[in-house]
Design goal:
- The complex is a heterotetramer, with 2 copies of chain A (360 residues) and 2 copies of chain B (613 residues).
- Chain A has 360 residues and is an alpha/beta fold.
- Chain A has 12 helices and 11 strands.
- An 8-stranded mixed β-sheet of chain A has the order 2-1-3-4-6-5-10-7, sandwiched between helices. A two-stranded antiparallel sheet of chain A has the order 8-9.
- Chain A is globular.
- With 613 residues, chain B is an alpha/beta fold.
- Chain B contains 20 helices and 23 strands.
- A 7-stranded mixed β-sheet of chain B has the order 11-10-12-13-15-14-21, sandwiched between helices. In chain B, strands 3-4-2-5-6-7 form a 6-stranded mixed β-sheet, sandwiched between helices. In chain B, strands 18-20-19-22-23 form a 5-stranded mixed β-sheet, with helices on both faces.
- In chain B, strand 10, helix 10 and strand 11 (283-286) form a beta-alpha-beta unit.
- The longest helix of chain B is centred in the first third of the chain and has 20 residues, at 194-213.
- Chain B is globular and about 85 Å long.
- The chains are: A alpha/beta (360), B alpha/beta (613).
- Chains B and D meet through helix 12, helix 13, helix 16 and helix 19 of B and helix 12, helix 13, helix 16 and helix 19 of D.
- Strand 11 (356-359) of chain A pairs antiparallel with strand 9 (231-237) of chain B.
- The complex binds thiamine diphosphate (TPP) (2 copies), iron/sulfur cluster (SF4) (2 copies) and magnesium ion (2 copies).
- One thiamine diphosphate sits between chains A (69-72, 88, 112-115, 139, 141, 143-147, 152) and D (262-264, 290, 314-315, 318, 345).
């Protein structure tokens, strides 16, 4: 990639070197056998991620994948980049330290609904608030897989699991709403089974300067099979999946005749619009044209509430992508300014600062 | 006409008042003057955990003790020769520590019925004769200050608040301290409030002049400069020294310093100091909690930075799981625990040495780590460098133990020659024969390579799950696990040959009793040993900097004495380790009062034991 | 209070005994001297809380106040009820265990912006998600008070503090948005200096079944003085404070001529409405009538975004108050049903369950 | 015609296959049949940490070993007499443990070129003679099963999956196990899938019949029932026993059980078991993390419940700060640490004893707590009750140590007479003379009153900040702190007089070597000691249940023997404590392989030492 091209890169990658010659998906596979159950959604996500890597155009040695603990967190072992399979829930904190001190790296966090939202919830919301330049992929299978099937903070209420034989009694988090409530600058959702869609979201996240949060619906055939079936069955899929495209009117349903409109109370309602209707066409006036750049997260939040346990209407794609300088960029600037400034930067001078006196 | 001057070799002054009275500042200034004058000194600040307890109450009392002398001294002293009591609470809270005959300067303006009642004085101790055993100087400091300031364009409140400068001026005169430093300081501090500045300067001078002119003080005292080794000196607290040590270590290793920390008393000032040092490229990250603090530091270490985290007891406990991860992935990390009185929240502003066993064993599984401890405020500088040296060379987290007394206490520090500081440069792994073996070990140190992201060809994965020695791949193999467990232990044990042997101070080599300490008790043990020797007692002293591993010769040293006394500000933690190591029947001496030892108590115990060997 | 009256109590207090004879504020004062700095906003909150207690109509012995660590967390020592001054950030977890096992208690959590949103953030959002029957008062002074002045997760970006001499670089949380993103059923905001308003919010929280979250703007004269001055100065106050009243049109500004309306993008905009305008009056049509019971939190969320660092428009009062069975109630029901059911409830039978055999 | 029957006194069988082959279930069923038949037995499940590693690979191998005998036995045995290997990986992973001459039953259907390659076999070991040292029974288990099932309306996949039942049927015949239990079990398990049920029953019977009819097995073996003490027995794992013990403790104390926990291997099954027990009023709270889990348990304890939290190593570390708080507020709490191999994530499914020092010292400040450990799966029941007894009586958190081996291993358990279980009722504080003194202590136990919310007149505040003894108000007083530190220690030390002395098993009273253990090594040490004695060796054995405080007589016991051997599955943690306590030069023997000791290794070490005393 030429200097010029390199400067075309998104701010998020401006300081990250680009590759000499284009890599292939296989360059990112390790020699470790993949240890997930047959049919696990993690396989599809891994494949999509490895296939996306060449497109990211960052040398393998400048890519770092950091995870916590869980089936999903096994991910780094299968990526032939630098990797850190750490401890339960702490990956965002570890990634923060790395990203803040190494702007030349592309740092990815892999976590699960338990790892990222249960024990790791606090690190997650703080990383999002700070807008640290890390990309967080949360594999949401609505279950604790590795520990063999307890309910998670995203499991639907009433779920029968090993730890809730009488049904769980707590209401689940909506990860997208939570991320928006935490002032995240990039929030998206995708599905393990839709490689094309997932790849698009990964690209958008990579291009975003700052923290990117991606919830990925992931099937766990062993402990929570078909959790997302309604979104996958060809029959129901189109009515339920609301595919968000920046700048495009929101359309869904067979024949894409459904649209969204805000009620006077600020909730979104589903309305019928003739399929062909262009955004400015009177019939569709007032229905949403998706805009990820709205500064006010209320819009994206309202979209996230369309989602319901029954998946009646489930938006996927990028909900929000707004510009805010990343934590690490601001830190770097402060350091540069400080170094250029008048402050003491010589060890001897520092030690001798303040009142000193001579003896002998 | 000038007054008669009396020579003293050492003086202990305690400034005591309400949290609002600015006693810490007053003490600091007096200390600085004393330092620049060239005395040796040692200080002991003492303040409540509350930001501000109700005015005039006992919990609200804040004090600052400074001990200075014409010879080198080791402790802030047990009993003050002079107590400055700005209110009744300050008098009551500190009276018990005063030896009979001590000077007591009281601010009578504050000895109102209401204030007396607040601390349960029915009658005024200044008048009812209950202070007859002391030399009482009853002075209306507040009103004298206000009088001195009339004409100044400041509020009555501000005028009254300047009373601490009046007191400082008086004491500065009384002990013939140089005043310039303080005057410059006031200029700088109140630059943006010229009126306040003038007022404080005036108050200071008024106090000075009052001393010079009043009959109340017939003599002026003089404590000659101490004859310390030649060099440039400054006064320094443990927390500042520790922060400087870390910056030095970063410079010496050429690695950028990354601090991941969460505020906690008494460690916060290290974060504050380092946050100022961005010109050195220091990155400070105030995390959401202690776990994120160390997590970020570990992430930075993975990236090739000098990762550091600072905390105190409860925060240290929270970091345990991540420390365990750092030990498993064998990356360098410096973990500073500024100990405070526990358990649980305990007494945050009070000192204690009770985190030693937590530092050694506060993690699941077999997780051995190097542990070292600072002995004096200035020693925090050297130990920070030593902790870094070990961490970088052996690719391991290292725990550095300081405590509340060292953190806030201060002493004169002879500035080291920067050129003479150790070289801490490290070599990151470079591409060699593939496949890269992230857990192939250096045969000498048993350290694994430090291969940082960005290095082509060394892509690898690390994990808290047990790893195959060599390849680093996940392994549940029984033999590999046992090998790794023993390798991690051997790596730490091996450091014993890379640290100086314990040095024993046994002047005539014929002592039969050894006093062995660690950490911040160095000063009080040293002072006690000196006094015992002055009294003709034979006693040897040794002090441990390295607590894991112990210096290789420690066992021999212990067996070389009939009796070994181990004073600790805990219930005998080092004692347990020594008995485990050597089966020597070492004798613990433990006080757990949230305070440094009184040298006097130690003198008594040592003499007792000498008389029984 | 008579049986009948007792049954009139809100579900949140139905299982909590009521007082024989009415108590007074002084009954809730302890003999401990209050250890806050002169002028600290905590004094006013304490006074308001103690004055509210008699109104709560619960015997002192059935009230429990649980806090973490911080200046604010000193609170329990000054309340002559049962109290637990615990450790940093953990109060919501401790309160959860108590509330779940003791439905006969009125459990209050006192926390700070550091205690509750920094180290304790995860416990907070999970307690809200679960809808545990505890009332959480978060004293937000936008600073760490007890540790002498470091910035907090609610400090405005660029803040100079002991730990950020060059200015903080992370964007703050909006506590109300965060709570809504965590699916809280009750979310409110009040101000230390407005005793009447605060008392009203406390009442509403007490009546709510489940978790109530109240952010209280609190002044720290020592380390962050006048942080909320714009909301307190008589001059600017009325323009900035948007007082929310359930069922009332939202009106503010001098002469209460300003109202709020949703844009087609789902953001709230400030509009001028003639002061007298009734909700259904044409000129005011489309402007908001406050409704705390909307099931969709998007509305409350949009309100929370009105708030800006400059306090241009800051809503106070109850944002959201919706009905959802509390975690402890659901737990109690499961236990009752289980006890009534066929399951083993005899120790001997339990031990002998599964395959057994006789010897001798 | 019936086959010849041969009597054996003990047999060790290991079922090994792919994670997908249902070996744990097969082993469980065989164990149940064996239990109901009346043999004594001991089991050792062994499975990978992954849910399912790739089929046919070494990491995917899951095995279950059962040891049964006509006399009482103590361990699952070192070396299997019979190995059932369902695929090449299972054969390779387990072959090393087989003594020459052992029976090996292999499922030849799985020995395809592809599967052989997966584990690096170039030729088929079943054919290339590399198994000549063993009695190999090469059987096409899969195809035989499928054949037996043709006509059944199930998929080929389901038919193949029934092969484990075929194998079970075969082994059940071979060792003349009663089959009813298994048949009933299959009825129940597949009630909702009758076709699958029929298939499994048929497969089981086909296996049985195959054994009876085939020439491949000329003899049937018989292991007579063991003569155990009379009573009703069941087979039980440590986790189930621990859960039952907690329920019993709740019933015996009359306090509702509240469990605050976060799932973690190998402790999760305790949460699962208790979650089922709502009819007992058990409240289980799956918290967001370990800290919230123990926090909630402590909150419940404050409210008068029996607060319990369960976890494993890394979670235990995280709980440290809250444990410290519980110790400070002196409330009862039971903390169960089911140890696993560490440090860090380590090997979650493997066993270890390396959390002992963490249990004692993993907190800041001086924070002494009672610590006890379970010795066998069934002993988890008794120790859960004992932990509760101490916690309630002394108002203190108590740490109960189990481990992965006990958690999943099982043994026959003679059901206790419920009426004979200890009375654990407690008296909550009642209104007395005001003001209420929440830290006034019982002079005998030093326990403070347990005053629960809802009790009028006892309103009080507790805190992790140091409290004044008696009033419980916040206190920074130096003397009070020292008093409290020593009182907390004295309270724990005092428990030594409330627990049974260590019992030493020294048949002739003339042994000069004592083997002292703790926790799950009880079985292997016991087995080794027996064998040594059979060989005429003189050796005494003692096992510690109470690790803090130690039983009062421990010092004397240690000094009563010339040599003391302390085997531990760690690097010598109890050894350090014993040396610290008694200065006795106890000798550690440590293996850290994530597995229980092999009795054979211990026999060797013990004999070595005997020959040198
Ligand atoms: C400190 C700690 N607590 C608990 C565990 C046990 N544990 C491992 S993974 C996990 C949850 C996994 O769920 P999730 O994050 O959803 O990942 P998944 O397996 O579903 O992909 C738990 C509780 C642990 N390893 N460490
Ligand atoms: C585990 C732990 N970490 C850190 C601390 C130190 N600490 C005490 S209070 C506090 C923050 C207080 O801020 P906030 O919650 O806003 O309360 P405020 O004092 O402002 O009312 C901190 C960091 C502690 N006590 N325990
Ligand atoms: S348990 Fe579920 S999430 Fe885990 S590997 Fe198996 S299928 Fe995937
Ligand atoms: S520091 Fe601030 S918050 Fe703390 S007591 Fe003082 S004024 Fe209040
Ligand atoms: Mg999951
Ligand atoms: Mg605050």
């Amino acid at each position: 990639m030429s200097e010029a091209e390199h400067d075309q890169r998104p701010a998020s990658l401006r300081l990250v070197p680009s590759t000499e010659e284009r890599l292939a998906a296989k360059d990112f596979k390790t020699d470790q056998d993949v240890r997930w159950c047959p049919g696990c959604g993690d396989y599809a996500i891994l494949a999509a991620f490895q296939a996306f890597m060449p497109e990211l155009d960052v040398p393998r040695e400048n890519v770092v994948v950091i995870s916590g603990i869980g089936c999903s967190s096994r991910f780094p072992h299968y990526m032939d980049t630098y990797g850190f399979h750490s401890i339960h829930g702490r990956a965002p904190a570890i990634a923060t330290g790395l990203a803040v001190s190494r702007p030349d790296l592309s740092v990815w966090v892999i976590t699960g609904d338990g790892d990222g939202l249960s024990i790791g919830g606090n690190h997650l919301i703080h990383a999002l608030r700070r807008n640290v330049n890390i990309k967080i992929l949360l594999f949401n299978n609505r279950i604790y897989g590795l520990t063999k099937g307890q309910y998670s903070p995203t499991s639907e209420q009433g779920k029968i699991t090993k730890s809730t034989p009488f049904g769980s009694i707590d209401a689940p988090f909506n990860p997208v709403s939570l991320a928006l409530g935490a002032d995240a600058t990039f929030v998206a959702r995708s599905v393990d089974s839709d490689r094309k869609h997932l790849t698009g979201v990964l690209r958008a996240a990579a291009d975003h300067e700052g923290a990117a949060f991606i919830e990925i619906y992931q099937n766990c055939p062993i402990f929570n099979d078909d959790a997302f079936a309604p979104l996958k069955e060809p029959a129901s899929r189109d009515d339920r999946l609301v595919r968000l495209q920046h700048g495009e009117p929101v359309r869904f349903g067979a024949g894409r005749t459904k649209g969204l409109r805000f009620s006077a109370q600020g909730s979104l309602e589903v309305v019928e619009v003739p399929g062909s209707a262009a955004p400015d066409d009177p019939v569709s006036r007032g229905t949403l044209v998706h805009d990820v750049q709205r500064d006010d997260p209320s819009y994206a939040f309202a979209l996230s509430r369309l989602d319901s346990e029954g998946f009646s209407h489930t938006p996927i794609g990028v909900f929000r992508k707004v510009e805010r300088p990343s934590y690490d960029a601001l830190m770097a600037t402060q350091i540069e300014l400080a170094k250029a400034g008048q402050g003491i930067d010589d060890l001897g001078t520092l030690l001798a600062s303040g009142d000193t006196w001579q003896i002998g | 006409m000038g007054k008669q001057v009396q020579q003293l070799d050492r003086v202990i002054i305690r400034f005591a008042g309400d949290s609002g009275d600015g006693m810490q500042l007053t003490g600091d200034r007096f200390t600085q003057e004393t330092a620049t004058f060239g005395n040796d000194l040692s200080t002991l600040p003492n303040f409540p955990a509350e930001i501000r307890a109700p005015a005039g109450t006992l919990p609200g009392v804040s004090s600052f003790q400074v001990h200075f002398a014409d010879h080198d001294i080791l402790t802030p002293g047990d009993a003050p020769d002079v107590l400055v009591a700005m209110n009744p609470a300050a008098l009551q809270a500190n009276l018990d520590d005063l030896p009979r005959g001590a000077d007591v300067i009281v601010n009578t303006d504050e000895f109102t019925r209401r204030n007396l009642a607040k601390v349960g004085y029915e009658t005024n101790p200044v008048e009812d004769g209950s202070l007859d055993a002391y030399q009482v100087h009853a002075l209306p400091l507040t009103s004298m200050t206000v009088k001195a300031l009339d004409g100044h364009e400041i509020s009555k409140k501000d005028a009254e608040r300047a009373k601490n400068m009046f007191a400082l001026g008086l004491l500065s005169w009384l002990y013939a301290r140089p005043a310039e430093g303080t005057l410059d300081f006031l200029q700088a501090k109140f630059a943006r409030h010229p009126e306040i500045m003038k007022a404080n300067v005036t108050a200071f001078q008024a106090g000075w002049n009052f001393g010079e002119t009043t009959e109340a003080f017939s003599v002026q005292y003089e404590v000659m400069p101490a004859t310390l080794p030649a060099g440039t000196y400054r006064n320094i607290t443990g927390n500042t020294a520790l922060a400087y040590g870390l910056i030095a270590a970063s410079q010496l290793s050429g690695l950028p310093l990354f601090l991941g920390s969460y505020p906690i008393t008494p460690a916060s000032d290290i974060l504050h100091e380092l946050a100022k040092r961005k010109p050195f490229g220091v990155r400070t990250f105030q995390a959401e909690d202690e776990i994120a603090g160390i997590g970020a530091a570990l992430g930075a270490a993975f990236g090739g930075a000098l990762g550091v985290t600072t905390t105190s007891g409860p925060g240290m406990t929270l970091k345990g799981e991540t420390i365990s991860l750092a030990a498993a992935v064998e990356l360098p990390l410096v973990i500073c625990d500024v100990q405070r009185a526990g358990p649980s929240t305990g007494m945050p502003t009070k000192t204690e040495q009770a985190d030693l066993l937590q530092a050694l064993f506060g993690r699941s599984g077999e997780c051995p780590l190097p542990v070292i401890a600072s002995a004096t405020p200035a020693d925090c500088f050297d130990t920070a460098i030593e902790a870094t040296r070990i961490a970088l060379k052996y690719r391991t987290p290292v725990i550095l133990l300081s405590d509340g007394y060292l953190a806030n206490g201060s002493e004169p520090w002879r500035l080291p020659d920067v050129a003479g500081l150790p070289d801490l440069r490290v070599a990151f792994a470079q591409q060699g024969e593939a496949p890269f073996q992230p857990y192939r070990r250096d045969p000498r140190t048993l350290a694994r390579p430090w291969a940082i992201p960005g290095t082509a060809g060394l892509e690898h994965r690390i994990s808290g799950i047990e790893r195959a020695n060599g390849s680093g791949n996940i392994s549940y193999d029984a033999d590999n696990h046992e090998r790794m467990v023993r390798l991690r232990q051997a790596k730490v044990d091996g450091i014993a040959h890379d640290i100086p042997p314990v040095k024993v101070d046994d002047p005539d080599g014929d002592a039969r009793l050894l006093v062995l300490g660690w950490g911040s008790t160095y000063g009080s043990i040293g002072a006690a040993v000196r006094r015992v020797r002055l009294g003709g007692g034979k006693v040897a002293q040794a002090h441990l900097r390295h607590l894991s591993p112990f210096p290789a010769n420690l066992g021999d040293v212990l067996s070389g004495y009939e009796k070994v006394l181990v004073p600790e500000i805990n219930l005998g933690q080092l004692t347990l380790l020594l008995r485990g190591l050597s089966l020597a029947d070492v004798i613990p001496y433990n006080r757990v009062r949230g305070q440094p030892f009184h040298a006097a108590d130690l003198v008594y115990v040592i003499q007792e034991m000498i008389s029984h060997v």
